[in-house]
């Protein structure tokens, strides 16, 4: 009954030496991963804030397109979207200068939709009285939003935004299927050469994990900074 | 200073204000009293255009605005708001800003006053409401009474002709009510024109020159505060006051 257990070859679980030797190669891939992730986070955030604000607009001409965009991006797999960009667009004569660019564009456009929803829920969670106080002090909509509401919404949006950032880091691995030689692709190359998939993919997983731990650390620091004004720590 | 004519306001099918008429002269303190749901808060919020009236007209200071003939222009709304300052039941201080930052924010970004000037004026007002020593604290570290006094200073910073108070002490613990009422009373003595929605009847009798009693969207009785709030003519006013006395 526990036959399968006794047949596990534990000695093949992790080849530390292979991991160590392939680390420089993997880190080259990590550079591409971080490159794609950093740009994607930036664009997804900027676009997400704009989309989120448009989604809350009282003008249907802003609200409806934002709504449809968010619905489409949330409702379709990122991998499919990346395929459309990289394999589909060339059919109609549009080609990205490199697979990396296609990856950044795909990931940014897709995750911007999630960011937009985070922005919207955070802004909505700022009490109405804050808007009213700003309005009664003769602030315009933009002034109220920028000076009063968004700073408070930022604090609320931090944890879900960092969830998205981590998803973006992990989502860059999808770029490996359009030939971007990032971390996962590099791991797969060595794994194909050495036939040690276990070691290589575990190593890749650990590297992703470490990156996300670092991101989580930034999140904690920002949360402390943005909660300074609250009388509880 | 304020003239309200034939003001009407509906929320959906429900009429909240039915042809309201009243005037407030410069230096007058007017109390709006009445049961909850009588429309007094809505009326006050209409004066600041936090609610948009459906019909009628409002004059505050030098600005008259008519309602009911299409949408109101944004600049007109801004202009009318310039003449009034609002104090809310729930204070609504900006939690991410210190007391001083709270009160200089609008003067700097709306009125383009130099920061140094705003801070100087801010200090004067904060000492007036007894909050100078707390100027660097965040609202979360203050009691309700302290927050409300800071909120009063914040509204005064804009130098409004009229101060509007929406149940300024209703959210306060009983022992904190007096410190806020004292500040408002001080303003009354200085001749600040004010409209106050309140349930503090003794305070209303003491501080206000005129009282308006509202019921079901109408002003049922108005006159000298001492008379309306002590010897009301209308049955509904008497009933309301009797209910309060039971406390």
From TrEMBL, chain A:
It is found in: Cell inner membrane; Cell membrane. One of its GO terms (molecular function) is transmembrane transporter activity. The keyword Transmembrane helix applies. It is a multi-pass membrane protein. Residues 30-219 form the ABC transmembrane type-1 domain. PROSITE patterns: ABC_TM1. GO terms for cellular component: ATP-binding cassette (ABC) transporter complex. InterPro entries: AA_ABC_transptr_permease_3TM, ArtM/GltK/GlnP/TcyL/YhdX-like, MetI-like, MetI-like_sf. The chain crosses the membrane at residues 32-54, 66-88, 94-114, 198-218. CDD domains: TM_PBP2. This is Glutamate/aspartate import permease protein GltK. The lineage of its organism: Bacteria, Pseudomonadati, Pseudomonadota, Gammaproteobacteria, Oceanospirillales.
UniProtKB/TrEMBL annotation, chain B:
It comes from the Bacteria. It is found in: Cell inner membrane. Coiled coil: none annotated. Keywords: Amino-acid transport, ATP-binding, Cell membrane, Membrane, Nucleotide-binding, Transport. Its main location: membrane. It is a peripheral membrane protein. Pfam families: ABC_tran. Residues 2-241 form the ABC transporter domain. GO terms for molecular function: ABC-type amino acid transporter activity; ATP binding; ATP hydrolysis activity. GO terms for cellular component: plasma membrane. The keyword DNA-binding does not apply. Belongs to the ABC transporter superfamily. This is Polar amino acid ABC transporter ATP-binding protein. The lineage of its organism: Bacteria, Pseudomonadati, Pseudomonadota, Gammaproteobacteria, Oceanospirillales.
């Amino acid at each position: 009954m526990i036959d399968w257990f006794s047949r596990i070859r534990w000695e093949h679980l992790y080849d530390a030496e292979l991991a160590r030797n392939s680390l420089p190669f993997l880190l080259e891939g990590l550079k591409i991963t971080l490159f794609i992730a950093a740009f994607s986070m930036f664009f997804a955030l900027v676009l997400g804030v704009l989309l989120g604000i448009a989604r809350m607009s009282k003008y249907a001409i802003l609200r409806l397109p934002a709504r449809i965009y968010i619905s489409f991006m949330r409702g379709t797999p990122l991998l499919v979207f990346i395929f459309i960009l990289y394999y589909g667009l060339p059919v109609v004569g549009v080609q990205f200068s490199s697979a990396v660019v296609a990856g950044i564009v795909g990931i940014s456009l897709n995750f911007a939709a999630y960011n937009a929803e985070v922005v919207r829920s955070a802004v909505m969670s700022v009490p109405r009285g804050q808007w009213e106080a700003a309005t009664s002090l003769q602030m315009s909509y933009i002034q109220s939003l920028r000076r009063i509401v968004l700073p408070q919404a930022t604090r609320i949006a931090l944890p879900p935004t960092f969830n998205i950032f981590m998803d973006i880091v992990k989502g860059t691995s999808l770029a490996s299927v359009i030939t971007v030689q990032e971390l996962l692709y590099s791991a797969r190359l060595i794994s194909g050469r050495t036939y040690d998939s276990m070691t290589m993919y575990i190593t890749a997983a650990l590297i992703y994990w470490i990156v996300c731990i670092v991101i989580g650390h930034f999140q904690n620091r920002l949360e402390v900074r943005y909660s300074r004004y609250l009388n509880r720590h | 200073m304020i003239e309200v004519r034939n003001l009407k306001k509906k929320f959906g099918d429900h009429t909240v204000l039915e042809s309201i008429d009243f005037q407030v002269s410069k230096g007058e303190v007017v109390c709006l009293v009445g049961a909850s749901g009588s429309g007094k808060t809505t009326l006050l919020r209409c004066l600041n255009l936090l609610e948009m009236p459906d019909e009628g007209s409002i004059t505050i200071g030098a600005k008259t605005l008519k309602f009911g003939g299409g949408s109101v222009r944004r600049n007109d709304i801004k202009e009318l708001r310039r003449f009034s300052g609002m104090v809310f039941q729930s204070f609504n201080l900006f939690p991410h800003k210190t007391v001083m930052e709270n009160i200089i924010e609008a003067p700097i970004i709306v009125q383009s006053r130099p920061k140094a000037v705003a801070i100087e004026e801010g200090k004067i007002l904060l000492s007036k409401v007894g909050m100078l020593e707390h100027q660097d604290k965040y609202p979360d570290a203050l009691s309700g009474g302290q927050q409300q006094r800071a909120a009063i200073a914040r509204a005064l910073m804009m130098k409004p002709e009229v101060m509007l108070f929406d149940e300024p002490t209703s959210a306060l613990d009983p022992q904190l009510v007096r410190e806020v009422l004292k500040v408002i009373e001080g303003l009354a003595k200085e001749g600040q024109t004010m409209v106050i929605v309140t349930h503090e009847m003794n305070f209303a009798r003491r501080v206000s020159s005129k009282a308006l009693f509202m019921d079901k969207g109408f002003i049922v009785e108005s006159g000298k505060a001492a008379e309306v709030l002590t010897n009301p003519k209308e049955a509904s006013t008497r009933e309301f006051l009797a209910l309060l006395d039971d406390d």
